[in-house]
Design a protein that fits this description.
Layout: E1 2-6, H1 12-25, H2 32-44, E2 49-55, E3 58-70, E4 73-84, H3 93-107, E5 113-114, H4 122-131
Parallel strand pairs: 4-5
Antiparallel strand pairs: 1-2, 2-3, 3-4
């Protein structure tokens, strides 16, 4: 049975293992300090939020999200990261996480939930095309030096 809830202090190891796998999936490398900063922010729960998906009580997925203002209406929720343990894929984990964030965003008075993915992420896009509308926007980015 799939359940979703906020990540708690006892979920740190499972979350970090999955988050590192997510970072690897996108071919990135991040310093340990990034994981510590993110975890602290999730536990604080004021700016950044995280939910876990559990299958039979075990953490098998996560999502990270936050609310931000919109110039053209009510606040919106950005679903920044979503990842499912490869061994648990195809069981509805990502769908459950998206639904949980959507419900949370409704409770916060948000106007919409949105996210980005790589065009080549065809597996995830099959689900996204079922649960959301592709708005056709193309993302541009300028990386700033750290």
């Amino acid at each position: 049975m799939i359940s979703t809830d906020l990540l708690g202090p006892g979920d740190r190891d499972a979350w970090e293992r999955l988050f590192r796998a997510y970072i690897d999936f996108y071919g990135r490398s991040e310093p340990d300090a990034m994981y510590e900063r993110a975890w602290s922010a999730f536990q604080d729960g004021t700016r950044l939020h995280a939910r876990a998906a559990r299958l039979d009580g075990r953490v098998v997925g996560f999502t990270h999200f936050f609310v931000h203002p919109s110039t053209s209406g009510p606040d919106v929720c950005y679903l920044q990261d979503l990842f499912t343990d490869p061994e648990a894929r195809g069981k509805g984990i990502a769908r459950a996480l998206i639904a949980a964030v959507t419900e949370w965003a409704k409770e916060q008075g948000c106007d919409r939930v949105y996210w980005n993915t790589q065009e080549s992420n065809t597996t995830a896009r099959r689900l996204y095309d079922q649960v959301a509308r592709n708005t056709g926007f193309i993302r541009y980015q300028i990386d700033l030096p750290r």
